[in-house]
Amino acid sequence: MNQIMSDKRVIALYTLPALLLILVLIYVPIVLTGYYGLMDWDGIGAMTFVGLENYAALITDGMFWSSAYHSLLLALFSVGSLVLYLAVSLVLSSNMKGADLFRKIYLIPMLLSSVAIAQLWMRIYHPTNGVMNRFLTTIGIENPPLWLSDTSIVLFAIFIPIIWQYAGFYIIIYYAALKNVPKELEEAAKIDGATPVQIAYKIKLPLIAGVIKVTIVLAVIGSLKYFDLIYVMTDGGPNGASEVMASYMYKLAFRTNDFGYGSAVGFFLLVLILIVTYLIRKATTSKEDEVQY
Amino acid sequence: MKKKAFIPFVTLSTAALFTLAACGSNDGEEASAGNSGNSGNENTEGSNAEAEQEDVTIDFMHLWPEGSSPDHHRIVEDIITDFEEMHPHVTVELEVLENEQYKNKLQVVSSSNQLPDVGMTWPAGFLEPYVNGELFTPLDDVLEDGMRDDFVAGTLDAYSVEDQTYALPLELNIAPVFYNTAIFEENGVEVPETYDELLEVIDTLDENGVTPIALGNRDRWTGSLWYMYLADRIGGPDALNSAIDRSGSFEDERLVDAAANIQEMVDHNAFVSGFNGLSDQEAKSEFMNGNAAMYLIGSWDLPNYTTNEEIPQEFRDSIDFFKFPEVEGGDGDIDSWVGGPGVGLFVSEDSDVKEESKAFVKHFTEEWGKRSVEDAGVIPGTQVNTEEVDLPDLFIDVLDDLNNASNITLFADVQMSSSVAETHLNMIQSLFGEEVTPEEFAETHEEALQEDE
């Protein structure tokens, strides 16, 4: 077995199929997207080469910047909510009663598709029949917010289901990492008289720092390219108030037939994600025990 | 043990690769088979000696899945069966997708030149890029033997570019204001004939705690209908059209007034609360539940108020419609409608079976015209003789009004190029949400239109 595995030709043979698939399905389209971004193209007829015109147009496109701003806000919001997930995981992993049940409760949203979640929350947010506003009117608030049609709050109204949607995913990751923290350390600390907060802060968190870093990167990347819930719930509206980069890209390419410009937005999005990922790694990398991803 | 496990893995992954490769070559074979089929048909000198009458396949893509449009779907199936019986050498292969997916798929396959032989398109702004890209074939020869006269005046124009027709319309819709007679009676209001009367009706209903109008403006074109009607009633049919075709301006006072009227209606609480965040479906359910008194929508919704058995008879009986009220002092008249053709059939320019496809489109359009009204409640692009068909009164009334229409203004977002339409639709949301003034509304349109020129 070992002989076979160390044969370079065999290794090449085994990895080739997957490599080819990744190349064809992921990297080639990325390169093509960048290439289409250089074109004036309606996605249907002939392409005209326009150089960097599309990329230059991005700079003065107000809607693009506001959608980029919304995406960054979502990223910040998601990273912020990691604290919440972490807190929940710390509680769940500390041998509390019923932890198992709660873990399942948090995991359930992950089992639903985004569209189902969107439908569910659209009902919750319904201006008159929704649970939310029914509740607010019964406790005496006469004009409860119009969650999805008020341009000043629609973005946050959408962030909440997104947080809810991903809670299970991150809680599972943290939970698993925390369970791997050696019990002996905790017991030794207890004997020394450390409080649970101290144990969490001084022992558990440093030991799962690598995992936390990974989740930060995941949350940021996921937020920047986020699309589905927003597309279903508001379609980026009203008038772009909840537009994010991915939904804007989709609209440009498929609604307004501006495929070249849409590709430019897509390519910018990719570059942005690479830069942000790099920056986060730079900012959080310590010399020891780095987790590779 | 481990060693054995690796063998299936290698086999599997190589098999996967071969399957992929096989798919690629299969496509090629199919295409060449189609080619030879075509040449065999047109040209009997073809080297293919076995040709009796070559079997050909027409690929047909439509957007009426069995689940969401069962009546439409059934008629399509029937027409295809008919056609295949009449032309035994032709097989029609179907691909059925939902609306949005259909649009996306059409664009994706067109960029790689793999359009189906026959498919569905929307008129005007949607159709133009395909025509400019030389992907649709002109169908004027199909219309030559008198078929042209079967269509409702003007509908073919929406599918024409530079005097050539690129698709045959299957649907024609106008937008009446549907209203709940029971709610009107309970609140002692009459059908409004002028805009001022409409405001009075709205006020009375609002004071009595009834939502006057169901509007799902998340979909945006629904709000656009209201704006288009007001623009039509104030400015006449030309004001909006000429602003869009650039012989006029969007900053025309009459168009600004129409925008101001929209905000006046919003201030009168005319529309269901939170309309900008509600989809058309959600708003419609308010109307269908009897919570809202009026609902402005295309005549495609007629079956819900006439024949749809899933909706309580009592409700259906209480629904009537009225023409959009006139605005006093305005240039428009009450017999002018906002509406337009829906989908039409195109034949792909690159089709290998163009002749068969054209015959299919012709047959389809004719049969559809005969059957769609009675069987699916669709108003076809072809003329309907209301005395011959057995239909609910409400339906007959709409068809009669359609025949007497003084003008049909094509839906604005359909008239405009797609990028201007996007601006228009966004501005509609802002206008209804009172985030822009009527002047800014007009100005933004004007800028977008100028930029597009």
Automatic annotation (TrEMBL), chain A:
It is found in: Cell membrane. PANTHER family: ABC TRANSPORTER PERMEASE PROTEIN, INNER MEMBRANE ABC TRANSPORTER PERMEASE PROTEIN YCJO. Pfam families: BPD_transp_1. One of its GO terms (biological process) is transmembrane transport. Residues 68-280 form the ABC transmembrane type-1 domain. Gene3D superfamilies: MetI-like. This is Sugar ABC transporter permease. It is a multi-pass membrane protein. The keyword Aminoacyl-tRNA synthetase does not apply. The chain crosses the membrane at residues 12-38, 72-93, 105-124, 153-177, 207-227, 259-280. GO terms for cellular component: plasma membrane. InterPro entries: ABC_transporter_permease, MetI-like, MetI-like_sf. The lineage of its organism: Bacteria, Bacillati, Bacillota, Bacilli, Bacillales. Belongs to the binding-protein-dependent transport system permease family. Keywords: Cell membrane, Membrane, Transmembrane, Transmembrane helix, Transport. It comes from Alkalicoccus halolimnae.
TrEMBL record, chain B:
Keywords: Signal. Pfam families: SBP_bac_1. Residues 31-50 have a biased composition (Low complexity). Residues 1-21 form the signal peptide. Gene3D superfamilies: Periplasmic binding protein-like II (3.40.190.10). PROSITE patterns: PROKAR_LIPOPROTEIN (PS51257). It comes from the Bacteria. Residues 28-52 are annotated as: Disordered. This is Extracellular solute-binding protein. It comes from Alkalicoccus halolimnae. The lineage of its organism: Bacteria, Bacillati, Bacillota, Bacilli, Bacillales.
